[in-house]
Predict the 3D structure of the following.
Amino acid sequence: MVLSLRVMAPNRIVWNSEVGEIILSTNSGQIGILPNHAPLLTALDMGVSKIRSGGQWSAMASMGGFTMIDNNRVTILVNEAEVSDEIDLVEAQKDYEVAQMELAQAEGRKRKIEANLAFKRAKAGFYLLLDSNQ
């Protein structure tokens, strides 16, 4: 048995294939999805999701969204998503370090919220590359 996975961002289809297993970063922690999973609708957090297909693991950084699981079909709607081959390691590390510094220096409620979102986005992309290079 396999899962039919479709990941859609506003501007493109990020992933559309059959897979064996998915590990998602949800708002309440990570969740593993295998064939014959119970129907589920869950919110995604900014983070790295892992996808097993043909014995190989791939990773995808998602910037929040929703997942619907029903009858071995997994539909993921994301605000943004990146797979590891779309990200430059040097640039991702620089973005992560800058976002970390800006978060530490942020003052005021609005600026702290904006800095935290930028940090989560940069962290997801950077961790995606670190995970895929191991």
